[in-house]
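Before the break, one more example. Copy the sequence into your notebook; we will annotate it together after we see the structure.
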Amino acid sequence: MKETLMPRNDDPAIDTDHVNADQFYLVQRLTKPVRAAREGAVGIDKYFRLDYMGSAESEVGRQKESLTRIRAAGNPTIEGQSFTRDGQILEVLVVTAAAFQDAAWTALNDWIVDEMRTKEQHGFGDVLLTGRVPSHHPDLVAWWALGADVMWTIDRDVAENLLAGLEKR
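Here is what the structure looks like once it is written out:
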């Protein structure tokens, strides 16, 4: 079931070529903050803690680059779709710019299908198979493919917070 909460942006001038499974090589885990909304924080940082990612974060600024591309494309949306894996059905909610949504679903599906990718340390393979967050990451609530500008979760409230975190400041 695909649900669009905001109108699509079908502007052909917005480049979507980077939204593909190959750009899922750098997946940022997002966890619950200590408080429901962190005081003084803005954007994504207001709602989530981000795992430290070494040079991707401190030297290159991949999070900032991804946010810039999503915000520049405009009209961020939440779309849900059901995935079936090994007989299990799980709704996944994708948050990204409306112009990226179609490519995001193709990329996420391609990435999930590749068994090697689901065994990486991001933990989404476990969630997809069981519907539960792995015990070694109890506060894990969402993921963000920094190269593809795609965020996803299995929780509607978390998706709403991702969307709020994408608002331009």
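DSSP finds seven helices and six strands in the chain. The longest strand covers residues 76-85. Try to locate both features in your own notes.
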